[in-house]
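Narrative of activities, Objective 1.

The group set out to show that a structural description can be obtained from nothing but a protein's sequence at a throughput compatible with the screening campaign. Below is one input-output pair from the validation batch, recorded exactly as produced.
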Amino acid sequence: MNLKSIFKGVVSSALAVGLITGVSTLPTFAQSTESLSENYATERGVIQPYDMDVSSGTYSGTGFSTSYKLSSANGKNVNFFIKNTGDVSVKITINGGSEATFAAGKSGHISAPVGVFASEYKFKASATPNGGDISIEYKIAQRD
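Output recorded for this entry:
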């Protein structure tokens, strides 16, 4: 037996083991091409998400203010949800236009249409009518 034929046999065996191992583990790493219906809606053959969460959290202080660049590609409307967990009424606004006031312990939301082109949307919450500190739980999301 010469060294060359032993080397060929070892290499052939290693390749065979590697090929068998690779083929048997392939289904483990395969990714499904199916989309789940609870995450996407189809409209005229285009897959679109149902909604997009922009931000959420809690806030306590004199006034809440934040802004985000949004476009209608992620939802035709933007919603500003709050739960007033403080002692004073809270007025919320989107871009200074859409507004609502929620008494202590109440919750609700306001909506505003989102334009096709990306632009800045400002979300504010403040104590009303006489000022003071607010305490809220909030969520900002786009929906169709």
